[in-house]
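Progress report, Aim 2. The chain analyzed during this reporting quarter is listed below.
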Amino acid sequence: METEGERKVEESRGNKRLSESPPDDDCCPICFGSFTVPCRSNCGHWYCGSCILQFWNYSSASKPCKWPMCTCKIVNLMPETSLQQQQQDLEVTEVLKSVQRYNLLFLGGVRGFFQKVRELPFFINRMFQRLMDPDANDTYIAEMRIFAMVLSFIYRATPFDFIPTGRLGIGRVFDFSAITLVLILRLVGIYRRRRLMQRVRRLAAMELLQE
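Predicted structure tokens for the chain:
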């Protein structure tokens, strides 16, 4: 049975989590510095707005940011109340706009769906960048195959018939094409990484010779 002391501790934690400003003795868990443009997530943790957005940019941009501290998907970022009530400089304003854009992307419902459609070029660009990253664990094969299936449905619905399919059928042709594209982009990423490492070694050798 929960004691009165434990209940008070839980209440104080809840008030801390739901406060409109970050605690004075706390810091951003990403940069470990003082908060700049503080934002509270739906799990109650506070972050710098630019830090959490950068963390999301380096993760899967098509999904909500998942923070390892509590394994909670961050679907909403709430900036500190004072930031919205005061006129801010250009840098803070840009961060607040990016936070609002993030919230709209993962809002859910009809509005969230239309926002994702509007941001489709951004998602495609990020997907191709991740596909060419040799260190990325997410290969996006499932997403690419779904996209290929949608394209095959669109192709069937149109009067065009210019793609030779043979015995495979248009669905399998698009599916195999998507998998091949994923493999090609990953090989391109590995090749680019290798060229970059060779260039770095060459520059390091030239500096040693100059010394």
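The chain has eight helices and five strands. Residues 5-17 have pLDDT under 50 and may be disordered. These observations will guide the mutagenesis work planned for the next reporting period.
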